Amino acid sequence: MGKLLLAVAAVASLSFQTPHEGRERMTQAEIIITPTPLVAGQKARIEYTGKLPATIDLDWDPSGEPKQVTIPEKPGYVEFEVPAAADSVIASDPSGEAETVASMVTHP
Predict the structure, then answer these.
(1) Residues 72, 52, 34, CA angle at the centre, nearest 5°?
(2) Residues near 85 by Cβ (< 8 Å), separated by ≥ 6?
(3) pTM of the model
(4) What is the pLDDT of residues 32-55, one digit of tens each?
(5) What's the longest Cα–Cα distance across the chain?
């Protein structure tokens, strides 16, 4: 009976964790593109909230450069020029730590 009560107490204590407990394990890295939407021929910024330095793959439609950017530890972001002909971009993290994000590109 004592072991049963101990097991129930252990399960109950796990069920009543505060919202902040274990958050570090559940936090996922993010790719943040600004401005949104991007503007063709102008500067843009990509930030990454995961472990730095990080490499992010860029898939432009239609194809353009840069195809990849590396985000340094400091300042934690990279700036680049949006290709003049681009209509959209998909940014992905080859490490799999962050979900893929996409952005439309406007033309002034």
Answers:
(1) 65
(2) 40, 62, 64
(3) 0.74
(4) 999 999 999 999 999 999 999 999
(5) 74
